[in-house]
Amino acid sequence: VFTAEILSVGDELLIGKTTNTNLTWLSGQLTHLGGIVRRGLTVRDEISEISEALTLILGRKPDAVIISGGLGPTFDDKTLQGIAHNLGLCLRVDRRALDLVKERVGELNPGRLKMAHLPEGSRALRNPKGTAPGVYLTVGKVHLFALPGVPSEMRAIFKNSVVSLLGKELPLGFFYEASLLSSGIPESKMAPIISEGMAQFPEVYIKSHPLGMEKGRPKIILHITSQTNEVAVQEAREMLRARVKRSGGIVASP
Ligand code: ATP
Ligand code: MG
């Protein structure tokens, strides 16, 4: 198990133009690797905002930090400047980053050269779906990754490079999950059933998500998860199924 934080960078996220699907995707990936994502923070494309966010995040000393957005060729992509400013590092042409950029494009121009300027001590990560390389940096014991905002590029670098680098450095784990759809039991009556389940299966976390009413009956999804015990997840599901039925509810899913 390890702890992680996610920093999303981009004006478009804070003017309501783009939905932060990177946060959702990264949260799911990190959770399934055995990580506990403690926070997700979103800031604008401003060096001071990025730097201040990093001060807060690094102060909490998570094992991993994933930043997405702002690595592109244009002047408004400032993530690496924000990182460099925060850590007191220079941005320098990085040999490997330059090679990776050249692999993708025919000739260099100022924008492309910008993407090869990394904070000193970084490692450039190959971007199989675009030009801007990802960036890996360790700050004390914190493993910090900066990935492009374009979802396909962010995902590809995460899968190809970030997972294995994290695996080398941190104790990865598992994430087991199951769900149950209940109908006819209101959330207030479900609460004691959930408490009972969590008391009986301490390694399991149970959360209810109300889906509203259907034909006058409250529908609730129960999400049952554990990062340590796969068998307990299934046992908890059986226990919940029996208790819902006994309380007069209908279990709608198998
Ligand atoms: P580019 O080289 O395209 O400039 P970049 O690394 O600078 O890449 P951004 O400029 O931050 O990335 O975003 C590029 C595109 O990716 C934007 O059009 C934006 O809509 C999308 N995007 C950025 N951040 C996110 C996010 N958190 N979730 C979903 N989409 C995003
Ligand atoms: Mg951009």
Molecular structure report:
- This protein has helices at residues 11-14, 21-32, 47-59, 79-87, 95-104, 110-114, 151-169, 187-200, 230-246, and strands at 2-9, 35-43, 64-68, 91-93, 117-119, 123-125, 134-139, 142-147, 176-183, 205-214, 217-226, 250-251.
- With 254 residues, it is α/β, with parallel strands linked by helices.
- A 6-stranded mixed β-sheet has the order 2-1-3-8-7-6, with helices on both faces. A 4-stranded antiparallel β-sheet has the order 10-11-9-12.
- Helix 3 crosses helix 4 (79-87).
- 36% of the residues are buried.
- The model has no long low-confidence stretch (mean pLDDT 96).
- The structure holds adenosine-5'-triphosphate (ATP) and magnesium ion (MG).
| Approximate helicity band | 40-55%
- By secondary-structure content and strand pairing, the structural class works out as alpha/beta
Fraction of residues in β-strands:
25-35%
Low-confidence stretches: none
Q: How would the global form be characterised?
A: elongated
N-end to C-end Cα span? 31 Å
Strand order within the widest beta sheet: 2-1-3-8-7-6
Task: Describe the sheet with the most strands.
Answer: 6 strands, mixed
- Element string (H = helix, E = strand): EHHEHEHEHHEEEEHEHEEHE
- What is the overall number of helices? 9
Summarize model confidence as the mean pLDDT: 96
Small molecules (ligands, ions, cofactors) in the structure: adenosine-5'-triphosphate, magnesium ion
Please give the number of β-strands: 12
